[in-house]
Records
---
Amino acid sequence: MQQKAMYVIIAVLAALVAALVGSLVAMAEEGKPTVALKAGAATFAGALTLLLGVMLSLGVVGS
């Protein structure tokens, strides 16, 4: 497996972990599954964008 693809997979997995934590925190605070789903989706999108942005600026991924 190429090293850049491995870094992208790691970024996606880290974003999924952040989304899980975000949804668990929302579930503990609000107690509603829809709020937890929305919080998890927003956290996933934000974390993935941030991680890929950092990786692009460091030159890990990209052309």
---
Amino acid sequence: MQYLLPDRDSSSAVDAVVEMFDASSMRCEALTTFGKLISAVPTGQIAKAVGATEFDQWRADHDVAELSPGTCVSPKRYAFLGGDGRLSDRSISVQVHVGMAAKLRWKMQQLGLKPGDRLPTGFFQL
């Protein structure tokens, strides 16, 4: 799941840098400007970029018409833990999704683990 965050330091909303944050991989990088983002929304480019087809398929497979605001479908396993991009069978709170990703990544850092390393027994007992 990716989130777009406007750069608060920009002098103009149109020129504000929009960053992409992916909680599954814990990557954050500059993506575009807010003006370009807003102009791309009506064309459908944004929906294609964030996996709208896959999400539509997930909704059909799980008989879900829409998600409530503040919810998302997280991956079954976060990318930094070796996930393959498959989605969970249920939706969760965005706060829980991002919080769990941050907590698991922090635990990896505390143990000196890097993405792809074998996880020790008991790792998921948070």
